[in-house]
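Hello again, I could really use a second opinion on something today. I've been staring at a protein lately and its backbone has me curious. You're getting the sequence in one-letter code plus the fold written as tokens. I'd be grateful if you could look everything over and explain what you see. No rush at all, and the record is pasted right below:
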Amino acid sequence: MVYRGVAGLDRDIGGLLGERLDKFKVVVMPDFFIDRIVELPSLEVFLREVRSKIKSGGGSVHRLEQTEIRGGNAANTAYALGRLGLSVDLIAVADRYSELFLRSVFSSLTNVRIDTIKGEPGYTVSLEFPHKGRIVNVMLSDVGDISKAGPDMMPVNYSKRISEADVVGVFNWAANMKGSELAEDVFSKASEKSVSTYFAPADLSGRKEEIPGLFSRLRGILKILSINENEARVMGKALSVKPLPADYRPKDTVRSAELLSEVTGTRIDIHTPFGSASSYEGETHFAEVFKVEQNICTGAGDVWDAVNITGYLLQIEPDDRLKLANAAAGLYISSNEAESPSREQITSFLKVNFSGRKH
């Protein structure tokens, strides 16, 4: 194994985002959720309040801050890519009401084209609370008709859209019972046209028994797999390689990425709260995250994916690509608005964090 950690920085990597990005086209699909974020003081306090209400026959728990936002891995990634300035096609499940909401959210991004698949979108209540010094979330989801978003539900022109893209991404396989068929169809079409393929399957734990078959189907047509630490752990167990430990360290993340890349035959990118790793053909890279004050956790992985995809399109070296993605995720989770960062914001963040520093 060739392992490369955080390289010395004697230049501004934020400048790597300086060129025009609208020349790149990315197609993403198929999930769109309406998310309600509920901020809890702590899990223990919340459960105590719930038990109290149950004992008294029911009632309301007041003074919980809540926000309704755009959700879904594909929709969030499309939005983050749009904020960076890329040309984006989003293909997503939505009914008449939710389509209005979706188009309203994207109204300022004229570089994002939306095609809706008629059906019920997903709905999620995300409970966010502090745990071991950081904010974690538990998402309660109704996946709606995303669960049956197979190739047969795609728009009639979707093959053409794929052939015109630079990258095509399939997201949230975990919620889509036809996700294997969709990923295989999309990636086969993309590979025929030499279009790069990106897969972010989301929480795999409920479909562990399908994982070996999934990656057998995708072998040779999937170029990049993006997962978090929990998904890496589940994949390791399902594919009979040493899983990422619960108390993992950077070296464990590096090793997990390498093992999963070897067994799947694809590039593995793992993003975690402590750092990110990228591994392919025995060469593995790792970059630590930036230390920021965390205000948000829901959606950070989608922002990371958007900048990671952009890094691939710009052919940025893996070390710098991981740093850029980590910077974007750090900016996002430290914000108060749950807004994906622009490339100008990412550049400014990097100038501040790397000013006068060497790693």
